[in-house]
User: Fold Putative pterin-4-alpha-carbinolamine dehydratase from Waterburya agarophytonicola KI4.
Amino acid sequence: MTELLKQKCVPCTGSLPPATAEEISTYKTQIPDWNLITENGELRLRRVYQFPDFVSALAFTNSIGKLAEAEGHHPALLTEWGKVTVTWWTHALKALHHNDFIMAAKSDAIAKEDN
Ligand SMILES: C[C@H](O)[C@H](O)[C@H]1CNC2=NC(N)=NC(=O)C2=N1
Assistant:
């Protein structure tokens, strides 16, 4: 299986194929701490990262922001005291794409670096 961490996002357009149920369950094994959720009728990936204070939660938020700009794929981020909620999905598709799994894996790698 190709490691998600070693991959790069492809540009998002509405014509990309969404991830199939089979792909979703395969990719999911590489990002076990992420939850599949349905919001606004769309499948999304969500993880809550814990931090000891607001400053480190904010620093992590900024690191995810830099990753998003570098890859051209952007999450929803909720920064609170002691936690950051990261949600990935592909707006252009109103669904999950391979890109979202790559970004979830890269988010986990940033969380490991920062700790
Ligand atoms: C033009 C630009 O690349 C697109 O609007 C990108 C920006 N970032 C994006 N991020 C996410 N998560 N989904 C998208 O569909 C998306 N589209």
In short: Residues 54-71 form the longest helix (18 residues). The helical segments are 21-28, 54-71, 98-114.
